[in-house]
Design brief:
The chain has 144 residues and is mainly α. The chain has six helices and two strands; from the N terminus they run αβααβααα. The protein starts with a helix and ends with a helix.
Length: 144
């Protein structure tokens, strides 16, 4: 699938930029990041990675909201960021967003445990923290 397919199929739609929704989405991102750390401390490592992904996804949505993009598909968000924000977010973090997207899918819909350990959970939290920091920088540049 290509980014243009996401718009044609209405998994992404153009709307009005919404600073308020972007702010709410970033607040949610930081809440999810905090939850990821709490889950890690309680040794719920798979759940911690899922919460880390949720934090990254909410931060990604904040970027889309401020640019007037409405999402209906997680993969299309990855494509949009790759096309429009590879320089300011970095392809490494966008790639990790996609990796955690796939792990989240497996965790929710798969029938086998992922076997996530403490190190993987900690890495997800670190990457999520970096992703949120970069997203915040992008949003700060877009404030009127």
């Amino acid at each position: 699938m290509r980014l243009e397919d996401c718009f044609k199929g209405r998994q992404l739609r153009r709307g009005r930029p919404d600073i308020n929704m972007a702010r709410k989405s970033m607040e949610m991102a930081f809440e999810k990041l905090e939850r990821a750390s709490e889950l890690h401390e309680k040794e719920f490592y798979e759940e911690s990675v899922v919460a880390s992904y949720s934090a990254m996804f909410q931060a990604a949505r904040a970027i889309l909201f401020v640019e007037g993009i409405i999402e209906k598909n997680h993969y299309c968000v990855v494509l949009y960021l790759t096309e429009n924000h590879k320089d300011d977010l970095g392809l490494d973090l966008i790639s990790w967003l996609d990796t955690y997207r796939l792990e989240r899918h497996q965790w929710f819909y798969g029938v086998e445990r992922l076997g996530t350990d403490s190190d993987e959970s900690e890495d997800a939290i670190d990457r999520s923290t970096k992703f949120l920091e970069r997203a915040k920088e992008i949003l700060n540049k877009k404030k009127p």
